[in-house]
Amino acid sequence: MADDLTLTRLNRIIQGDCMEELAALSDESIDLTLFSPPYDGIRDYKKNWSFDIVELGDQLYRVTKDGGVVVVIIGDGTRQFAKSLTSFRLAVSWVDEIGWKLFECVIYHRDGNPGAWWNQRFRVDHEYVLIFFKGERPKTFQKDHLMVPSKHAGKIYSGTDRLTNGGFKRITPKAVNPLKCRGTVWRYATSNTEGNRLKLQHPATFPDKLAEDIILCFSQPGDIVLDPMCGSGTTCVMARNHQRHFIGIEISPEYCEIAGKRLAMEHQPAEQQTLFYGI
Ligand SMILES: C[S@@+](CC[C@H](N)C(=O)[O-])C[C@H]1O[C@@H](n2cnc3c(N)ncnc32)[C@H](O)[C@@H]1O
Questions:
Q1: What is the pLDDT along the chain (279 residues), one digit of tens a residue?
Q2: How many domains does the chain have?
Q3: What is the pLDDT of residue 278?
Q4: 17 CB less than 6 Å from ligand 1?
Q5: Tell me, what's the pLDDT at 162?
Q6: Same domain, 105 and 226
Q7: How many other C-beta atoms can be found within 10 angstroms of the C-beta atom of residue 217?
Q8: How far is the CA of 226 from the centre of ligand 1 (A)?
Q9: How many angstroms does the Cα of residue 199 sit away from the middle of ligand 1?
Q10: 184 touches 213 (CB < 8 A)
Q11: How deeply is 16 buried, as exposed, middle or buried, from its count of CB atoms within 10 A (0-12, 13-18, 19+)?
């Protein structure tokens, strides 16, 4: 268990700058961090924040336990037809300069949001879920809740497997499992359709179900889940509702108030349905 510096901050929303507040947390005390930073001026917040994403990755590396995981939900803005590459820069600098390892880059396909839609561009309807881990491997990985029905359930699979040298190998016939693991494109309805008016007072939230899926996958009951830019408190509410400890940090007093109210009122796991492709 973490020592006092982190323990005294458990299960609280802390109003402040995450760089200062993170510096006050103990080394190797956090099991899972899940957050979405403001990026490329895409949303109009109460203030224009600035922070160094590499310094943030460095602090998170220090406070994360061996085998701990950090998940960043992020996308790229567009200026004069060119993508900013903010997400790519973050991933490369965190791995090359800090030592994080990239477990996966999942595509979060947003449903129900028209997004940026101009005549000369595609309609942007995705963000990235960058999943980093520290050490040899993630210490927790549970995917029971991420299983989806297999399209060919009940059939007998009796084809051939392709070998690395290009040849074919006949496989022993076997029944197709009724369930298979979700792939690397995760589709969710946006927060707009959750019907949570309190949460909607914040301009840029991620879906409860997305936070719930990540928390159940990469942490266990009793673990400490951190969101250093917690906005309306989505990560904290989902962590608490699944018997994890949480630490939320948020610079805006107004958003801290929303997070506090959500924690007082929302005690159910996410009910929202997740929609998937490729099943
Ligand atoms: C994309 S929002 C997070 C929304 C959150 N995931 C949710 O579902 O409600 C990013 C948040 O980061 C906060 N923020 C920006 N700079 C910060 C800093 N240096 N320290 C703490 N919070 C910061 C903003 O006020 C904003 O609420």
A1: 555 788 999 999 999 999 999 999 999 999 999 999 998 766 555 455 567 899 999 999 999 999 999 999 999 988 888 999 999 999 999 999 999 999 999 999 987 555 556 678 888 889 999 999 999 999 999 999 999 998 888 888 888 888 889 898 888 888 888 999 999 999 998 777 788 999 999 999 999 999 999 999 999 999 999 999 999 999 999 999 999 999 999 999 999 999 999 999 999 888 654 555 433
A2: 2
A3: 38
A4: yes
A5: 86
A6: yes
A7: 19
A8: 13
A9: 13
A10: no
A11: middle
| Domain match, 187 and 266 both | yes
Question: 232 CA distance to ligand 1 centroid (A)?
Answer: 8
Q: What residues make up the domain containing 154?
A: 148-180
Residue 21 shares a structural domain with residue 133 = yes
Of the three residues 132, 159, 180, the one that is the final residue of a domain is 180
Q: Is the CB of 45 under 6 A from ligand 1?
A: yes
Q: Is 36 in the pocket of ligand 1 (CB under 6 A)?
A: yes
Give nearest CA residue, ligand 1 atom 3. Answer: 231
198 lines ligand 1 (CB under 6 A): no
Residue nearest to atom 19 of ligand 1 (CA): 17
Which residues on neighbouring strands pair with residue 73, listed in sequence order?
129
Same domain flag for 163 and 244: no
Alpha-carbon span 56 to 208, nearest angstrom: 24
CATH number at residue 110: 3.40.50.150
DSSP 138-203: -S----GGGEEE-TTTTSEE--EEEPTTS-EEE---EEPPSEEE--SEEEEE-GGGTT-TTGGGSS
Are 43 and 91 within one domain? yes
Distance 256 CA to ligand 1 centre (A): 10
Please compute Rg for the chain using Cα positions. Answer: 20
Q: Rounded to the nearest 5°, which phi and psi values hold at 241? A: -70, -10
